[in-house]
Amino acid sequence: MSTPGQVAIIVGGASGIGWATARLMAGRGDTVIIADLDGHAASTRAAELGGNAAGHQVEVTDEGGMRALFDTVTADHGPIGIVVDCAGISRPGTIADLSLADWKATVDVCLTGAFLTVKEAARTMRDGGSIVLVASLNGRQPGVGMSAYCSAKAGVLMLTEVAAMELAPRGIRVNAVNPGFVHTPLTYGATLVPGLVDEYIENTPLGRAGTPEDVAGTIGFLTSATAGWMTGAAVDLNGGAHTMRYPDIVQRVADMTASGNDN
Length: 263
Hints:
Elements: E1 7-11, H1 16-27, E2 31-36, H2 39-49, E3 54-57, H3 63-77, E4 80-85, H4 100-124, E5 130-134, H5 147-167, E6 173-179, H6 196-202, H7 212-222, E7 234-237, H8 249-262
Parallel strand pairs: 1-2, 1-4, 2-3, 4-5, 5-6, 6-7
């Protein structure tokens, strides 16, 4: 069961896992604040939810913007009870070839953005609240060409544990979820590489990709009273993919390029 009527901020809430989470929380009676880089999409999604839902534009790596978001939500809606960070990007490339700009962009959004989310949540949210960070299968499973994303998501898992320790005296729980391959705008590019999604699924014991609703359901549990004794945890939600092998994205892309050159 959840405590109804909480104020919930969903960072990266206008699409994919974030949007599925926003719908779930609105359905259980929470006041949902959708914060997203795409401010128009955030406002549109909030209008779809109706009620007291609101949309805000925010750049997750902008400390001033994040601070203003949390202050505005508190002033407009009251104490924040739930914060979920779903923002993320990925810039694949082998270590030898990955540009510093792509490394920084990935780490900034995935790890620094998570840090700023937790920082502002710790400053503004009510005691007894709940924070969930969306990490990744790649936080614990390496993949060729995924150095920036894997490193950032592994950092998110350690950030989760440290935050859980620091915020426990206030009764604020901090947990993470590790999705495997889920069909979202972030993973759309993978569907354009022949055989790549099939390889993901071949290495997933349950034999299917995940859905945003799969992940939202777990986030809903983590932010509920049922998980009231759970903090500092990372839930593997990947159909068992963490027990097997991660696809070789670089080789799949190389094969696609070679095939294109042969035509």
